[in-house]
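Internal tracking record. Fields below are filled automatically when a chain is submitted to the structure queue. Please do not edit lines marked as system-generated. If the sequence contains nonstandard residues, flag them in the REMARKS field before resubmitting.
Queue: standard
Priority: normal
Entity type: single polypeptide chain
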Amino acid sequence: MPTDDTPETFHVTTDEQLRAVSNLTRHRIMGVLRFEPATITQIAERVGLAKGSSSYHVRLLERAGLVKVVRTRKVRGVTERYYAMAARAIVLPDPGEGAPDVLMRHAVADLEASSPDAERHVRMAHLRLTDEQFAELGARLQVLADEYRELSDPALPDVTLAFALFRPAPVRQTEGDAE
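SYSTEM-GENERATED OUTPUT FOLLOWS
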């Protein structure tokens, strides 16, 4: 569980940080560390990596400032490091025009990799909203996500909530469509 002195948010601002969070394996490692510290061995087991690969990815995240060592202990003469997230939430910059959103790509990859037999709640709704309704819905979704994040217990199974509220790009007609 994050400690009381863990900052609420970490804003990704550098290319190194963006590259670190843009990798699906590192995204999954951060998911492991979201609620409780873990060692390289524990991370490797949870993510399904070799210890060497796990160590490599954690070092990149640490160098980018996204994870940090929160405690160490000696085990048979070797120092074991426990890593945790540097903040309770990571805030990514706006992806910019035409750029795919990193979080949504990772969420879709995680959904595709999840067990097809597991319970899922996936829904897509097309709405027509005023600017005020759009802003209100976005704020309500954020409050709901924050409320459930506060209820999260590291002893329970992982659950991912991903939502995207956006105005799609206008559909452009091609010459053949006009007929």
